[in-house]
Amino acid sequence: MPKDMRELLHRNQLLMPWAPGRSVSTARAAEMLGVCQTTIRDMIERKELRGCKIRPKLPNSPYRVFRDSIVEHIRSVCDEYEIEGLE
Length: 87
What we know:
By secondary structure, the protein is α+β, with helices and mostly antiparallel strands.
């Protein structure tokens, strides 16, 4: 990240799991994977995607989904199709 961009961020923001560029909302993740938000939450709970609650102590706190876990999921699905010969 360019130095001038770092100056615009709060000093602790880069340490947060949901820092800009590291994660997306469940709505965006659902759009990226072509599923509903409930499916994304279920996938996080089943450990198929990595994510975190913004406010862990609150039961209905929204999740943030890590971008790299979405990429890993897409790659693993593509690999499964290649293995099964369904290219």
